[in-house]
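Amino acids appear as letters; backbone shape is given numerically. Here is one record.
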Amino acid sequence: MNVLFLALGAGRRRAVVEESAKVVANGGAATVVIAMAKQWKNETFAPGVTVLDSSLLHQGELLWRIERLMVYRGPEFVLKRAFGRRGGSAVRAYRNKVADRFHKRAFLPVHKRLRKDVSSKLLAHHINRAPRPYEWIVVTDTRSMPEAVDVLDELGPDNRIGLAWSAEHLS
């Protein structure tokens, strides 16, 4: 059994860790999609559980690649060249004080407003590309529910993926 856990809100972290471990222990495969890795840093997943940060799904998008080039890679290249050996500390300071703040406060809100349906499309694309087809989507918190509905809409009526609130309900 191949199960995709949608854990975008990180509301039931302990349950997600335990349920994904149980799926793997029963011979299945478990993938946990999270929104913010920082919220999950204290959790240890069982070996065999794949953790996928949802921001990684966006990396191939043109807007994200342009932002990476203009806000991160370009200025960091210039800082490394300008400061020589001290370039590493200048890059870290720039990333912490300028680039990351711009990304969180300006880019992400605008991107979410302009491209509301992108996450569900990217997640549906991930599901379609999976080497082993997913049989279940487990929605682990309330923040993940609208995303799960959008993903199922993107997949279309022909999909055979079941939807559950907990791995306890899988058959």
Observations:
- The chain has two domains: 2-58+118-169, 62-114.
- Helices lie at 13-25, 54-57, 62-83, 87-114, 118-129, 144-155.
- The two ends are 9 Å apart (CA to CA).
- The chain has a mean pLDDT of 87.
